[in-house]
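Q: Could you fold this chain for me?
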Amino acid sequence: MKLIKNKKGFTLIEIIISIVLASVVGTISMKYILDIVNLNQMHAQKKDMVDEAKLGMEYLVREIRFAKGTPAIACGALLGACTIGATYNSIYFDRGALLQDTTNPRSVSYTVSSTNLVRTGAAAENIATNVSGFTVEVVEANLFRFTLSLSKSTGESYSIQAAVRPRGYL
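A: Sure. Below is the predicted structure, expressed as structure tokens.
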């Protein structure tokens, strides 16, 4: 019997070992790729929540900055005068003449309804969703601090604070 001295190709064992090694490397790589994708999704959701909170707070602060002078700002559910040192969950005010928005009336309120921060003027509109808290604190005469907290069912949460002094009070 003649022996073949020039063997070309792979044996069955070599092919099986290479397939097993490729599978192990592929499985480990896939785990890391999925972790990166999940992390990216979490960051995107957090960014959306932060953007929404910032936009809602900026909208409120800009609008109240132009509020008319006393007694146009009222706090709380009973629409009473805002007491220094007190904290409320809603605010009502008359917008100043500097805003050239003729589609909305001058009387405006910001309250939380369910999980939405709602601005009520001519019609109710949602300013932010997933709201877990909204407070209005009267820091000193004619200085208001607003805190807006948002949280999602997935566990992410974000809070933003802003202080504003209405120009009508200066």
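A (continued): The mean pLDDT is 82.
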